[in-house]
What does this fold into?
Amino acid sequence: MDRNAQIPLATIQRLPAYLRCLLQAQAQQMPLVNSNQIAEMCGGNAAQVRKDLSYIGELGTRGIGYDVGDLIGHISRVLGIVEGRRVAVVGYGRLGSALLGYSGLPERGFDIVAVFDNDAAKIGTSADGLIVLGTDRIGSELRDRGVEIAIIATPAEAAQEAANKVVAAGVKAILNLAPAVLNVAADVAVRQVSLSTDLQILSFYLAQVGKSDS
Amino acid sequence: MDRNAQIPLATIQRLPAYLRCLLQAQAQQMPLVNSNQIAEMCGGNAAQVRKDLSYIGELGTRGIGYDVGDLIGHISRVLGIVEGRRVAVVGYGRLGSALLGYSGLPERGFDIVAVFDNDAAKIGTSADGLIVLGTDRIGSELRDRGVEIAIIATPAEAAQEAANKVVAAGVKAILNLAPAVLNVAADVAVRQVSLSTDLQILSFYLAQVGKSDS
DNA sequence: GCTTGTGAACGAATTCACAGCT
DNA sequence: AGCTGTGAATTCGTTCACAAGC
It folds into this structure.
């Protein structure tokens, strides 16, 4: 297979799930897994697992399966999560606070190294070992601390301005938790997470099954 | 167009974004919008907006555009969010607490009517007007309160058991915020939200641009 | 014999381009 | 003249089915 071809986005979006399953397999002392087992653990199908993995290299052994440790290393390398990525959180409301306390991020190599808010009452207070800074300091602090990813956890109205500030500070990757569309330069990657959107999709599903029942 | 054909999933996933933009347009007193304006506000493209909307009906006027109020009504009806949907939260950690305090959910018609946790220290305490209940009461309370959607905000280890309980209580739609794959019956819809997954995808993007720079 | 890796077939989603209506 | 609605063309993603290798 042509290893210079770029990996499809759909595949990239599944790699983190594979990684999670493999770490679980490793915790259970399984030295090897086959594509069926991965598919079952991740809720996918075996052919897709094989095709996805084939995009990142010939990693398996025919007749045997995949070496768990090897695969973990490979996927981690492809995802660029070999070392700790430095992350900043903008918006220290209840959601921002939940992020600071969430152990799942450092466990996966994402270290929150700065928190910002523009509420004077919060600035200067302590947040899980960090001091909340004013949003006017985003520019200088993100550069000083080598932040690569910003998580926006502000209300919708403040999200665009927060994005402008982190982009001005050189950040090229944003995880947006605010229910707002961000307008940023084409070389900045944005991923949107919106609970209300997901709830609305579930709501559609409920409306569908309700209809066919009647 | 055949209105009995089912709406593509990809379209459904964009409808909530359109709805959000339309509500914004309405707040700005705009009576009409055209597909270009919607596309610009949501970060999509005009042809796609038109095709998506055509799946749910002939809603526009050629030469003119779409009536904002009409479209809002139509999309809301398709998404089944005309009335308040009853939602329960399982897991009252920092994330669960952030959900209870998040005004965006009731604003969009999702009312949190119950919270559960299995930590004895939390049971019985007050959570934004609700009392935290033990997870052993999920079965009875979800039925009593007419809950249709469950949000799982437990640690990964507890997620499957939480899912089993809410499914046993008749819930057919789950929003899973725990980093774990849920195994549920085929007639239960699950949507997975995972911040670490999204961060890993952003990390891949950073690794890519870093590579081509060198 | 068992499992990977992968062309080929299939299906889904996006984009194009223009006819049809106001 | 302007904008929608939609077949047709294209691109992208998934699934199949089997040859290749252990």
Observations:
- Chain A has two domains: 3-79, 85-196.
- Residues 1, 34-36, 46, 50-51, 53-54, 58-66 of chain A lie near DNA strand C (CB under 10 Å from a C1').
